[in-house]
C-alpha cells in the first residue's frame, strides 16, 4: 500500500492549495473524505463477507462430521438392539413351560397402579369465603359486568 507520512501529506496539501485554490479546497476535501469513507466501508463489507463465507464452509464441514458420527452411533445401536432381540428370542424359545407360567404378565396392565384421585382443591369456595365488605373496601369485583354494561355504568351522564 502507499506509504503516506506527514511530509507527503503536507506536500499534497500545499499542491492542492495552489492548484485548487483556497475557496474550493474545503469542498474538495469534504468530497475526498466522503469518498475515502465509502471506500473503507466497501473494503470492510467485502472482508466481512469473505469471513462469513469461510465460517459457513467450516460450519458445513462440522455439520457433515456430526451427521456422520450420528449415523454411525445409530447403526451401532440398531445392530446392538437386533443382537439383543435375537438373544431374547432364543432365550424365550429355550425356556421351559413351567417357567413361562411364572413370568406371565398380568391380564390388566394398570392393575399395579392405584386409581387416580383428584386433589379436590376448592378454590371457588375460598373465593366465595372472602367477605363482601372486604372486597368492596379493596376494590375486588364481586360481579362480572359485560363490556356494554361497563360502558353504560361508567359513561358520563348528560345534564339538561
UniProtKB/TrEMBL annotation:
MF GO annotations: protein transmembrane transporter activity
Entry membrane topology: Single-pass membrane protein
Keywords for this protein: Cell inner membrane, Cell membrane, Membrane, Protein transport, Translocation, Transmembrane, Transmembrane helix, Transport
Subcellular localization: Cell membrane; Membrane
Keyword S-adenosyl-L-methionine: no
Main location: membrane
Presence of keyword Calcium: no
Any one biological process term the GO annotation gives: protein transport by the Tat complex
Record-level GO cellular component terms: TAT protein transport complex
NCBIfam families given in the database record: tatB (TIGR01410)
Oligomeric and partner information: The Tat system comprises two distinct complexes: a TatABC complex, containing multiple copies of TatA, TatB and TatC subunits, and a separate TatA complex, containing only TatA subunits. Substrates initially bind to the TatABC complex, which probably triggers association of the separate TatA complex to form the active translocon.
Function per UniProt: Part of the twin-arginine translocation (Tat) system that transports large folded proteins containing a characteristic twin-arginine motif in their signal peptide across membranes. Together with TatC, TatB is part of a receptor directly interacting with Tat signal peptides. TatB may form an oligomeric binding site that transiently accommodates folded Tat precursor proteins before their translocation.
Entries under PANTHER family matching the protein: SEC-INDEPENDENT PROTEIN TRANSLOCASE PROTEIN TATA, CHLOROPLASTIC (PTHR33162:SF1)
Family label: Belongs to the TatB family.
Protein name: Sec-independent protein translocase protein TatB
Amino acid at each position: 500500500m502507499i506509504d503516506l507520512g506527514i511530509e507527503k501529506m503536507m506536500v499534497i496539501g500545499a499542491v492542492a492549495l495552489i492548484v485548487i485554490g483556497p475557496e474550493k479546497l474545503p469542498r474538495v476535501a469534504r468530497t475526498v473524505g466522503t469518498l475515502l469513507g465509502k471506500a473503507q466501508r466497501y473494503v470492510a463489507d467485502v472482508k466481512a463477507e469473505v469471513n462469513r463465507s469461510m465460517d459457513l464452509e467450516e460450519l458445513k464441514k462440522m455439520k457433515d462430521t456430526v451427521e456422520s458420527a450420528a449415523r454411525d452411533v445409530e447403526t451401532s445401536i440398531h445392530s446392538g438392539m437386533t443382537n439383543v432381540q435375537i438373544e431374547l428370542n432364543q432365550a424365550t424359545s429355550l425356556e421351559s413351560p413351567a417357567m413361562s407360567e411364572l413370568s406371565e404378565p398380568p391380564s390388566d396392565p394398570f392393575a399395579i397402579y392405584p386409581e387416580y384421585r383428584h386433589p379436590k382443591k376448592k378454590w371457588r369456595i375460598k373465593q366465595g369465603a372472602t367477605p363482601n365488605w372486604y372486597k368492596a373496601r379493596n376494590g375486588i369485583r364481586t360481579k362480572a359486568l359485560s363490556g356494554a354494561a361497563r360502558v353504560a355504568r361508567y359513561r358520563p351522564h348528560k345534564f339538561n
